Amino acid sequence: MSPLIGRYANLSFKESVFPSRYKAARVTPRLKKPNLSQHEPANYILISNLGTFSKILEKLVLSRLQPHVIKSANYCKFQSAYRKGHSSETALQRVVNDSQRAAGDGQCTALLALDISSVSSVFDAVNHAMLTDRDHTVFGVHDVILAWLRSFVVQSGPSRSLLDRRSQPCSCEHLAYLKARS
C-alpha cells in the first residue's frame, strides 16, 4: 500500500490540491452527559472521524512544514499545538507558573480566558484566507505548499458543524438521523 499512498500523496502535493472527498468526516453525535435531553441539539457533541488517507496526508504535510516554521524567526517559543511534549496542559501550567511568579514578585497579574464551547464553531469562525496569508507573510510559506494549504482549509462538501445547508441549527430529527447512521 505504501507505494500507492506515496504516489497519491506526491500527486496531491505536486498539484497543490487536498482532495475534497477526504475532507468529509463520518460524524457521530453523542450526548454530552447521559442525563441530558436527547431532543435538544445543544446537548450533543459531534465526534468526527476522518479517513485514514486524510490523516496520512496531514501528517506528511506537517512533517515537511514544521521544520521550516520552527526555524522561522517569527515562530513563538510558547506555541503548544502540534509540538511533541506540549499540550493545552503544558500551556496552562506555564500560565499558572508565570502568574504565581509575578504575584510572588509583587507584580499585578491579570488573566483573561475565553471559553469557546464548540470546536466546530471555532473552525467555522477562523478566517482561513487570513490564516494562510499569515503563513506566507510570517513564515515565508509560498508557492506549491501555500496553494496546498489553501486547498486544505477551504471548506467544501458537508459542513463540519451542526449546521444544515441554510446555515440553520440542525433539528433533533437530523441528529437522530446522524446517530442512526453511526
Structural class computed from helices and strand pairing: mainly alpha
Count of the separate structural domains: 1
- Helix content estimate: 40-55%
Per DSSP E runs of 2 or more residues, the count of β-strands stands at 2
Explain the overall architecture.
This protein has 182 residues and is mainly alpha-helical. The protein has one domain (2-72, 116-181). 50% of the residues lie in helices and 7% in strands. It has seven helices and two strands. It has a two-stranded antiparallel sheet. The protein is extended, with a radius of gyration of 20 Å. The protein starts with a helix and ends with a helix.
Quick take:
By secondary structure, this protein is mainly α.
Q: What features would you highlight for this structure?
A:
single chain; mainly alpha; 182 residues; two-stranded antiparallel sheet
What layout of secondary structure does this protein have?
Layout: H1 2-15, E1 26-31, E2 44-49, H2 52-71, H3 88-104, H4 119-125, H5 128-139, H6 143-153, H7 172-181
Antiparallel strand pairs: 1-2
Helix pairs in contact: 5-6
